Amino acid sequence: MNTETIDTGPVLEGALNVAEFYRDATVLVTGGTGFIGKVLVEKLLRCFEVKKIFLLIRRKANVSATDRLQQMLEGPIFDTIRSTAPDAKERFAKVVAMDAAFDREDIVDDVDKTKLCNEVQIVFHVMASIRFNEVLDEAIAINVTSAQRLYALASSMAELRSIVHVSTFYANCDRPYIEERIYDDVPYGGLEHIQLFFKSLSVEEKERMTRVVLGNMPNSYVFSKKCAEAMIGREFGHLPIGIFRPPIVISSYREPEPGWVDCFHGATGLCVPVVLGKTMWYYGKPEVKPFMSPVDHTVSGMLAAACDIYRRQCTILPVEKPVPVYNFTFEKNRFAYGDMVELVCSGLPNVLDRWLSRIKCRISPWKIFPQMLLWLMTLQARIADEILAWFGKRGSNVKIVSAITTLSNAVEYFRCHMWTMDNSNVKRMLSLLSRDDAKRLDFDGEQIDWRDYHKSYAKGIAMELMRKNDRRKSSMASNRA
């Protein structure tokens, strides 16, 4: 097996010149209203002199793309720009929403298509379904077919410089060692055969066959991401495209503010009981050291990768350039799951809470104890909801326990396995940054002080819990009105 990472061009400090790459550039972003997408848009507006940012946004619950964009820009993540940039209004005006329907062959209408093909230079495809229990053909439709249609559109962009396809480091988690290359070994004859086969199945048959097709892969999300990478290598290798593989993405380290988060997927969701002072034990191996990346580091890596993809395309040799892959993971400076509770607790304001949470929340190597505790918690939650019902109030205790349990089960695989990897392309990017760009794009994971990071982690979760509660109350009040 060839494990050599192929690269082009000299290793010179400042060779990327990232600031200049984005100056007066028009950027297209999918998934811009999501967790990573919001940080990406905010970073582009705050730190770079871009000309325009097109966001492809799907209509949701009868809310138009323009209205969804306005709601996003009013969010707290953009407060730094509002408070520090004198031209904040002009910066926000650079962001343009476009109605998109990824379930159609033409994802935008003809007018918008013409605009994109004439103006866009840089594309970030961030949109994805991150539901781990999705039926396989639905996961493929969102994570593969949507990308396929977007890159077909990108093929007609006259000034295209770079495309960053955001995948996941775990797209090939059935391998103990993951290289920076595409693994085109999709089983059962490949993606097309799987799609054709699923077309003839009933809903029940699809659910049963999903487990069969996945094989050693833990869920349809990572499998569909693997299929997307293989599709890119086969169909779009002629484009200036690269695959960016972030690991578990968690709340921000420093930008736009320490600890910022707006969703509770993955590791962050499992830390909610710690912040709330609830009891929760998870099954896993305490010694396992996961790959984690703060969202601001992840976005900075993506921004540098787009520039690096362009640099590779501009070199003369080799004539046939492989699709570059970036494993955004760092071997050193990782902490074990067994230490995670203590780290999260270090950010709790109350000394007693810090002490109690270390007892209440644990990673257990024995499955029986988390299962027993879950049974007791579910019983307690049902009793609490029944008592609330007697007083005419609706309880949500069972719903909360169920949600945390579902999330815990979905990511259990990743608490029990550990990987090694090659990240030569990411390290090379770091070496190519100028001093100014390195300050602007801080993404060296080996320099993260995790104790310093976790000082704001619990606070960030608590702030988002309060925001969600306020939105829930506001929604209930408007419904009553």
Automatic annotation (TrEMBL):
Domain Fatty acyl-CoA reductase C-terminal residues, every copy: 377-466
Gene Ontology biological-process entries: long-chain fatty-acyl-CoA metabolic process
EC assignment: 1.2.1.84
Class of the enzyme per the UniProt entry, highest EC level: oxidoreductase
GO CC annotations, alphabetized: peroxisome
Reaction(s) this enzyme catalyzes, per UniProt: a long-chain fatty acyl-CoA + 2 NADPH + 2 H(+) = a long-chain primary fatty alcohol + 2 NADP(+) + CoA
InterPro entries xrefs: FAR (IPR026055), FAR_C (IPR033640), FAR_NAD-bd (IPR013120), NAD(P)-bd_dom_sf (IPR036291)
Entry-linked Pfam families: NAD_binding_4, Sterile
Domain spans labelled Thioester reductase (TE): 29-300
Keyword annotations of the record: Lipid biosynthesis, Lipid metabolism, NADP, Oxidoreductase
Entry keyword annotation includes Oxidoreductase: yes
GO MF term set: alcohol-forming long-chain fatty acyl-CoA reductase activity; alcohol-forming very long-chain fatty acyl-CoA reductase activity
Entry's family note: Belongs to the fatty acyl-CoA reductase family.
Job of this protein: Catalyzes the reduction of fatty acyl-CoA to fatty alcohols.
Name used for this protein in its record: Fatty acyl-CoA reductase
Species the sequence originates in: Anopheles coluzzii
Lineage of source species: Eukaryota, Metazoa, Ecdysozoa, Arthropoda, Hexapoda
